[in-house]
Design a protein that fits this description.
Elements: H1 2-8, H2 14-28, H3 40-47, H4 51-63, E1 67-70, E2 74-77, E3 98-99, H5 104-112, E4 119-120, H6 133-146, H7 148-151, H8 161-171, E5 184-186, H9 188-200, E6 206-211, H10 215-223, E7 227-234, E8 238-239, H11 241-250, E9 255-261, H12 274-286, E10 291-294, E11 319-324, E12 336-339, H13 344-355, H14 360-372, H15 375-400, E13 406-407, E14 415-419, H16 426-435, E15 438-439, E16 441-442, E17 455-459, H17 465-483
Parallel strand pairs: 4-15, 6-7, 6-9, 9-10, 10-11
Antiparallel strand pairs: 1-2, 3-7, 5-12, 7-8, 11-12, 13-14, 14-17, 16-17
Length: about 475
């Protein structure tokens, strides 16, 4: 500490000296983006200064955008990149829905996202090394022995009762008071969304979606013969409610559903405000358009407080809330669920016709983990990891990518949306990266109309020194494309 004091000088107010010490550690890399800085109480004892002095110092560091406070969690080193613009370039949605036709480029990208020979930076999956694999597999073995007959039998809709009870209990944290009977288990969140679309829409109908949008939704819309109505989304506020109302007004009767990821949107990582969620639910009820809410990232908030869902403001059963445990516990277990409101009976019927039942063994294992496996402890740990890793990846992008590059600042999850200078074509960057064994997700696959050509989505869940090297390589390639 004495060496640091010498580097910060001996003059100035005491809180400025404290701020100088922490700032110096950040500058020298001793504290990196995403790292937690000492608590106010601990630093007060360590430096033998008052708590108020440390508070003043941290306030100054916040003003300098070197650290940020996370409620009930502490102070963390911020990344060094500027935020994306508050609003997207497009300020009005298209007047008419668009046919969804995914081209060969899209299919090639999708194939590469599943290629084990490539370093996967484009696919939004958790790092299995950070999941409770051994504990889950032990519970799977134990529960299938404990419920031997049930484990090999159909668990017909609405699905495993114990799992639905656990989900209903956890939904209280999301602002919802639902009974287990109001929940249907599914084979992942994707099936939940598919069931909702099949119940709500007929071929030729339009679905309002935020843009950029999770590209699997585009696959579903195309496969079901539906049209997409793209609504611009802001990296701060999420889907533009003004643009959505404009689109609904000009397409009365055509839009049969609206899909929104309200918490930690993929790919932008944004969290809609509670006021925005309430307004969204009220607006869609007015226009008699059901809301399909995907909350698959809701448990991965960087803050200890679990955000509310839009379903919390639903008083008429117009919101179909979908989620799963694929992003938090076990992607391969394929355990999800849907709270379908007034569409419950139809969802159960279509589920029965489509896949009969969700696999019993994995439902049993997830139910046991939620009841006795320390799910909340796991979440607290993984949230800290993802917060640190996304900040570190964002910082690396700031160091290695061309000047003018911007990156999202997600409040949860583990994906980053990178906006490069307009002259850079992300498809060219994708092709160059692929040749050297790196897979990324180019921006145009997140839009029906092929927008966002200068953007990419990256996954920070697997962050390590190897990935940092890959980011440096991608940044160098991006600089070459800019200067070519």
């Amino acid at each position: 500490m004495q060496n640091i004091m010498e580097n910060t000088g001996g003059k100035g107010l005491l809180y400025e000296k404290v701020a100088g010490r922490i700032g110096y550690m950040i500058e020298q890399g001793a504290l990196r983006p995403g790292d937690r800085v000492p608590s106010i109480r601990n630093l007060s004892k360590q430096m033998q200064v008052s708590i108020n002095t440390v508070k003043e110092a941290y306030s100054q560091l916040e003003d300098q955008q070197l650290i940020e406070a996370r409620p009930q969690s502490g102070y963390y080193v911020r990344g060094r990149l500027p935020e994306l613009p508050a609003e997207p370039v497009v300020d009005r949605p298209a007047l008419n829905p668009s046919e969804v036709s995914l081209d060969k480029v899209y299919q090639l990208v999708m194939r590469d996202l599943l290629n084990p020979g490539l370093l996967q930076l484009g696919i939004a999956i958790p790092n299995t090394e950070q999941l409770p694999v051994e504990k889950l597999n032990r519970m799977l073995a134990r529960e299938t022995r404990r419920y031997a007959t049930q484990a090999v039998s159909y668990d017909l809709p609405p699905g495993n009762l114990r799992l639905r009870q656990q989900v209903a209990q956890r939904l209280l944290l999301s602002g919802c008071t639902l009974s287990p009977e109001q929940i249907v288990t599914t084979s992942g969140c994707v099936e939940a969304v598919v069931l909702a679309l099949r119940v709500l829409c007929q071929p030729g109908n339009a679905v309002a979606i935020e843009t950029p949008v999770y590209f699997n939704f585009l696959q579903l819309i195309e496969e079901l013969g539906l049209k997409a109505l793209e609504i611009p989304a802001s990296p701060r506020g999420g889907i533009s409610l003004e643009a959505l109302e404009y689109a609904l007004t000009n397409n009365r009767g055509q839009v049969k559903a609206c899909i929104v990821i309200s918490n930690f949107n993929n790919p932008l990582g944004i969290r809609m405000s509670d006021a925005g969620k309430q307004q969204l639910v009220a607006m869609l009820e007015t226009y008699q358009v059901p809301l399909i809410e995907d909350d698959i990232y809701g448990d991965l908030s960087y803050r200890d407080e679990r955000p509310l869902v839009a379903k919390a403001y639903d008083t008429t059963g117009n919101v179909l809330l979908c989620s799963s445990f694929s992003k938090t516990l076990a992607p391969g277990y394929r355990v999800g669920w849907i709270a379908a409101g007034r569409y419950q009976e139809q969802i159960e019927r279509v589920k029965m016709i489509t896949s009969v039942a969700t696999p019993s063994p994995t439902q049993l294992a997830i139910a046991e983990f939620l009841a006795n496996g320390g799910y909340d402890h796991h979440l607290r740990s993984i949230r800290r990891v993802y917060a640190r890793q996304t900040a570190q990846m964002a910082d690396a992008i700031g160091r290695f990518f061309p000047e003018g590059t911007r990156v999202s600042r997600p409040q949860g999850g583990y994906v980053l949306w990178v906006e490069m200078p307009e002259e850079i074509d992300s498809l060219q960057l994708y092709e160059q990266a692929r040749k050297i064994g790196i897979s990324i997700a180019p921006g145009m696959i997140f839009s029906v109309e092929g927008k966002f050509r200068n953007c990419i989505r990256l996954n920070a869940a697997c962050w390590d020194s190897c990935v940092e090297g890959a980011i440096e390589t991608l940044g160098r390639q991006a600089c070459d494309l800019l200067n070519s």
